[in-house]
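Lecture 7 notes. Example A: sequence first, then its structure tokens.
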Amino acid sequence: MVPTLTATLGVKGHRPVVGTRDCKHLLYVFAVVNLATAAVHANLVDSPKDAKKKTGKSKTRRMQEAFAAHLRHVGRMYPTGIHKRVVLLIDNAPWHRGRPIDEALRDNPHLEFKRLPSYSPQLNPIERFWKLLRRRATHNRLFDTLADLRRSIRSSLSYYQTVRDRVRTLLDRKAMKRTPSTGS
């Protein structure tokens, strides 16, 4: 619930103030963006401050299980009968591999990973979406409760699910910048 801080406009001579709280509750967002249709599919996962004590599982194990559930969700959204092959671009986060992930992939054999090189977020289109989502949902905002944060993120996700042209423009604009020009 700690706000993501970014540059903002303010009245000249007055410094903008964003509050903070000492809160250890976390909200993880797993999402995929279909590069062909610009459809966004997401899952939110809460993590209370003492999750390890409550579950007896490490953060990596909890994240692996959440990511495996997300993969199963993607498998349902893109069923084998319609989509013979679904390629997911992922980074090398520790929760993107392990037994729960292997089981989810075994349940959904049409899902396939394309792992990106380490330390190369610029190659992953979802990173551009994360930046846009954070700007709309969390930048310079202090949330009183985890439910308020969840509501803001869900609202922003719903917005981007309905304005696919905005998402497509975001993805295409970056691709066009990498394309060499043919002019003189």
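Example B, a different protein, same format:
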Amino acid sequence: MHPILYLVFQLILTVFITGFTQPDSRLRPIGLVGSTLCVVQCIPLCMTYMVRVPWAALVGGYSVTHLYHYLDIVLLSRWSFLHNAPVSGLVRPSPSPKSNDEVPAENKKATGEDTFLARLLFGLKLTASFRFVGTLYEVRNTPRAVIVKRGDRTYFLWRTFATIAISYAFLDAISVMNDPAIASKYLDLDKIPLLFRLHEVTAEEILVRAFTVLAAGIGLNCVQGGLYNVFALLGVAIHVSEPKDWPPFYGSPQDAYTLTSFWNVFWHQINARKFSSISHYTVHQLFHLPRGTLVARYLRILVAFLSSGVMHLIDDFASGIRFGNSGAMRFFLTQGLGMVVEDIIIKFYHSSTITMPRLMEKSIGYLWVSLFLIWSVPAYMYPIMWRANLGLNDSTVPFSFFESSAERVKAFTCLLCAVAVGLCGSLFS
């Protein structure tokens, strides 16, 4: 069976378990078994059916992500239809709640009418909500939606279309610029270690490494943000959602001057609630560590990144990467350890008599984050690039503007379809 069908079954299972069962229902842990079985069936089939690594990674990644999402909303946070809120106490409302006028009506009180349709919509909303936008439980550091009072919908549709087109063009260009000869020389697995090879590392290798890390970051931004904007364009165009429901996928790069702000503010927060729930449950309910201590805080960071490492390790396997070659666990645990070390250094700096202008602090911070990522990202990215490094077609975009005329026609057709969606949406807005 096609792996996408297993993913669809996962979504349907999550919708009905969330909407039609009580928080203490025995069906909820049984549903976790069902969702896990879907992942087990889906992951090995991804490369066979999806052919290219980025496409396999998307299907496999969303499958394991929804397994984590099920674990969070159904078993850990334990969202309840009757309360229209999580009832486990693991998730708390925003510490800075919106004013009463700003809080959506459905979040001011428990759910009213108990009907099949109401429960179905509740399940659909929760299944599709990773950042819980517009609720009292919205993920912290979710960017604010761009709101324009006049022509808001039309402006949103065209801005979203422009973002999709730019993302497509960047992904196409990154794929075309791949040079298998350079890749085989500098982007192999034996080039991942850096500190122990400093005596043999050339300036050219450092430059290629830095450019590869930058291109990987832009590529991930374009893939994840681009796909997010495709759904945003469709949702707003057919009037099933509003522009305010689609805040930017990423934060501002201006905030990425520490590892903590890079991961907690700039990077997308789609998985933040899942990892937070797992880490809080592990540290405070399994290990019974008190809140408010440095040990508990640092352990939560490590557990969160360990959870992320497991998620991406499974995603790597879906992409055809053997567990032994995957750098997911190494990379994400390194980020967690880096954040802990960074926090200790910042605390020491603030307690010392050393003072620097804010601009200098941020400049040092940007340099630190850049060097840390150039050092650490290849552990995760180089194994993923195995097909592209062999010269195989592993582009994320299905059709290229830089290939044959037939390919260009197909690429322009894809963009014209997006323009048609935007036009229809603006005409009926």
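Note on Example B: The chain is about 65% helix and 0% strand. The two ends are 40 Å apart (CA to CA).
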